[in-house]
């Protein structure tokens, strides 16, 4: 039975018992001096030490260790590993928090220390019901961070909306990304992000992680507990869009509690999906994201290399130069550049801004939209697509 007292097995067992009360589990672990020592404390002494969590004492027996040993075998079988607190490859920033998990389930082709240590880590979170405004600025921000050359780690929650956009933008622009899951490492939620999760797990410098045991379902409470890990892993948290209630604001509060920087993208005062961001800024819980370039500097990454209209115009000129007459080509280039700079403009507004014929601008916008370079919303306002 001594084999069951391997420290990783014992920490895995403690993590399963104290997952929702990590402070209590961590205090007990530190008091005993090791996880193995916890399981040698007499039951009466355990109950006294745990106080209000005394009901956990009866769970700290041999069966918990057998179950944890099976769990570690199954974790390895699904291509993942368990990283216990106290191990050299446990994320250092997470250890600075008051409630770090007793262990993390980790999946990636790079070792944890190559993902989490020695590089800036930025959390990007926001609503699942992200607007074209949020999609565009999320990608612009990630691109600006990539342009600094510092290669920060982009951390998010693998959810619909902002999370998925942040992960995909990071991969598109060559940045490492980590997805913090609200399920076990053996299941991806939402299932539509299975391919995204595969890309993350198979890309160097990227990883999937969770503190939830295998076969954990995505219930609402799990997302709240998950959010503390997103904030704890990062030097700063960026909130893209959020209502006045939601997981993004919880993540921002965790980041504030951990004395980490918080930034929020402001939005229209009549847009409910920006109300949470606007409130964070108003209540001085977050600094305003005024533009991606100054944000990168405030994050300590330096100023991004400037990308201007020339890059877009050069690519479009190469693509359409042989198929459109010169006058039509210039209108198409102007239209694309205007949408890039201003977003959410109708063809009529673009024509008025550039002093062009509405008919010709509408034709150019339709061609650009058909080729996926710009996209219209239901009101036919154009923006740069998320991808």
Write down the overall mean pLDDT. 91
| Backbone CA Rg | 24 Å
Q: What is the CATH first-level class name of the largest domain? A: Alpha Beta
Cα shape: elongated
Number of domains: 3
CATH topology of the largest domain: Rossmann fold
Strand content: 5-15%
Structural class: alpha/beta
**Number of distinct beta strands:** 11
Account of the protein in words:
By secondary structure, the protein is an alpha/beta fold. The chain has helices at residues 7-17, 22-32, 35-38, 43-50, 62-77, 92-95, 112-116, 132-147, 162-172, 194-201, 220-232, 247-257, 275-282, 292-298, 309-320, 326-342, 347-354, 358-370, and strands at 81-84, 103-107, 121-125, 153-156, 177-180, 207-210, 236-239, 261-264, 287-288, 375-376, 382-383. The protein folds into three domains: 2-72; 112-298, Rossmann fold; 309-383, Arc Repressor Mutant, subunit A. The radius of gyration is 24 Å and the shape is elongated. The N and C termini lie far apart (54 Å).
């Amino acid at each position: 039975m001594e084999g069951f007292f391997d420290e990783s097995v014992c920490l895995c067992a403690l993590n399963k018992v104290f997952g929702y009360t990590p402070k209590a589990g961590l205090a007990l672990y530190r008091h005993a001096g090791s996880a193995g020592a916890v399981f040698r404390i007499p039951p009466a002494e355990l109950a006294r030490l745990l106080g209000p969590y005394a009901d956990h004492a009866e769970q700290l027996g041999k069966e918990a260790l057998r179950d944890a040993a099976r769990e570690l075998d199954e974790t390895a079988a699904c291509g993942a590993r368990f990283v216990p607190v106290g191990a050299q490859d446990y994320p250092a920033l997470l250890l600075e928090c008051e409630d770090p998990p007793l262990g993390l389930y980790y999946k990636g082709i790079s070792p944890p220390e190559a993902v989490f240590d020695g590089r800036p880590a930025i959390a990007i979170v926001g609503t699942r019901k992200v607007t074209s405004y949020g999609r565009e600025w999320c990608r612009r921000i990630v691109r600006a961070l990539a342009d600094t050359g510092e290669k920060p780690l982009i951390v998010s929650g693998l959810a619909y909306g902002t999370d998925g956009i942040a992960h995909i933008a990071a991969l598109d622009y060559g940045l490492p990304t980590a997805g913090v899951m609200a399920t076990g490492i053996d299941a991806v939620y939402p299932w539509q992000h299975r391919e995204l999760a595969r890309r993350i797990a198979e890309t160097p410098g990227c990883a999937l992680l969770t503190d939830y045991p295998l076969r954990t379902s995505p219930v609402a409470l799990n997302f709240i507990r998950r959010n503390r890990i997103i904030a704890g892993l990062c030097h700063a948290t960026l909130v893209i869009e959020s209502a006045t209630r939601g997981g993004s604001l919880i993540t921002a509060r965790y980041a504030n509690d951990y004395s980490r920087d918080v930034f929020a993208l402001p939005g229209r005062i009549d847009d409910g999906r920006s109300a949470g961001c606007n409130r964070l800024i108003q209540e001085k819980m977050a600094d305003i994201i005024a533009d991606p370039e100054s944000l990168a500097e405030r994050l300590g990454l330096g100023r991004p290399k400037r990308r201007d209209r020339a890059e877009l115009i050069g690519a479009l000129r190469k693509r359409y130069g042989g198929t459109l007459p010169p006058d039509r080509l210039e209108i198409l280039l102007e239209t694309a550049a205007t949408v890039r700079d201003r977003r959410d403009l109708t063809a009529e507004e673009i024509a008025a801004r550039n002093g062009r014929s509405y008919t010709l601008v509408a034709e150019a916008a339709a061609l650009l939209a058909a080729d996926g370079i710009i996209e219209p919303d239901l009101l036919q306002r154009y923006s740069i697509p998320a991808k």
